[in-house]
Amino acid sequence: MRRHLADQIAEMRTRFDSAAIALEHAKALVSITIIAGDAAAKAQATAEIRTIRKAHDTLDIALQLAAALRNVSADEPDSAICLAAAREIQGIRRQHDSDDIALTHAHALVNVTAGNATEEVRRQATNEIDTIRIYRDSSELALHHVSALRNATTYESDASTCRQLANQIDTIRTLHDSDESALEHAIALCNTTSIEQDASVMRQLADEIAQIRRLHDSEEIALEHANALLNTTSREPDIVVCEQLAEEIATIRLQHDSSDLALTHAEVLFNIGCIAHDREHRQYLANSIAVIRDAHDSVDLAMQQAKVLANAAGRETDIAEQLQFANQILELRTQHDSVDLGLAHSHALLKMAQLDQTSSGRLQRAEEIGQIRERQDSADIALKHAKTLAAAAFTAEDTSLCRQLAAQIGTIRETYDSDRFAEAHALALRNSLNTESAPAMCLQLAEEIQAIRTVHDTALVAKQQVLALLLATLEEQQSAACQQAAKKIGAIRKQHDSDENALHHAWALRNASVVESDHSVRRQLADQIKDIRTQRDSTEIALQHAATLFGSTCDETDASIRKQQADQIGVVRREVDSEEIALEHAKALFNATLAEADAAQCRQALDEIRNLRLVQDSPAIAYEHAKALTVTVINEPNPRGRLELAGQIRAISAQYDTYDIALQFAKVLYYVGAEEVDREVRRQLAEEIKVLTKTHDDEAIVEFFTRALRNAELA
Question: I need a surface site. Which of 165, 344, 396, 427 has the fewest CB within 10 A?
């Protein structure tokens, strides 16, 4: 209609042109820039006004062009277009300046600050408005200045800068105060609270909005006040303070109640629910939102109540209580169902599944989330479904069921795929190994997880593949297969290294050494773990190194090599000591005392175990000490030396009265007595064994006693 009017006037001007008719033509074109829905129509109308101005360059027509340019910049997201329009108006002012054109120029500069402009461009635009005000100040110009500053706070990421902008608005208000500028000031202060990190500062900003309300109270400013209090609760750790802030919002609602304020009140109650300590308090908060809904019911309010309930379910440790919270969300969904409510319900069900250790319970929750998806589906709900299916796979008692659950996640991924879905899929596949961990199955699933990694190579997916490969080595009887699995873990670590993956790599190498018969290969595997330790050392990895070194001493026929490996464990202990590593050292030192070890080597190993126990002692380490004493006694040719060694094991037995140590003690007493020439000493030794039989009624100990007793009676 307005385009038609402008065209009619344009036709008239071909017959009777004048400045007055041209002005009417320009006004008609300006009206097009007001109502036009697309930028092209605005630009065309503005271009026509430029043409008119070439023929009739009057103040009034210049004003119309400025107005059109302002309208072009209105709601325009491209700051470059807005800035170009403002610059053109600036050029118009050099020829035809007036209060109206200056005001229009300022308005266009405000539009510049509302687009995607850089911080620098916003600052320049704001400064230009300030310059305009130097020559032509008015309440309208001041309001544009305030609006530009407020726009800057909307996009500002630095809290201190945002506060400075709000202070500038405050200064302007001392000269040009109004309801509109007061609202802009309140919005700027509220925007500052959204990026401020200090709760006490946020509270001060909210108090400043409260002061504004004393002079310019309105529903809009009251809402900014409430939102500032809401933002404060997001940073305030003290639940008592948060409750006080919620009460302030309740007071605001007594004066200016609205659906927006009601929603803000509910959001504050949700924030409190995130830090509430007990289920009764969380239920109270949910009930409080229900009361708010009695006055302002909406799907958004129902969502806030559902979020409180979902959060409560997630923090609950009792499944029955979780179910109550979940059922309340279900009831909300019967009144206001939405994707968001379905998500809250799914979240509660997922938390129930994670707490429930039964397969049937987890399967039920997965089915319930599946039912939610039939009505309200989304990527987020589908992800909850996938995670619940993965959790169900963890407790499933049947391998085929595990694979079915993993396959369901695969089906979900056909619709919703992302890193998170891939991680749930990989987790479900790995969880399948809880029911069947045969090496072949482990390797097969590792390959399936590898296929997932080709699309979604995340640290968590890689971790599941590493675990599957590690599990393959636990029951594998072929060292070569274990080594191959360990090699694959090493390759994964090149993309996804972590302390955990490094540990699993070391563990797999140790497992390979356990089933390896070649002593030299065992030592090579130990060296590989040593290399891992140079990259990521920890007590756990050091333990794998020590255990592998100990394994290399087992069945080793060369006594010197046994001692060398034991010494290497000693080096590990000096670097990373623990009771478990000390035990591996003690076990290796015991092996160093075995066959073909000379008496001196036995004594040296024995001394090292004794010194080790001064730093790290336990019944298990003491047992290795006792065994080493037994071997040394057998190899000791000197009777006095044997008696001295018997004294050492006697002390161990007194400290740790275990059967294993008692048996070694009985064995030592028997061997010492067998070579003893003094009959009385032999009888004393036999009596000691007899005492052991009273606390350890064991056939082997009794046999050593009877043999020692027979020896004692010999001439």
Answer: 396
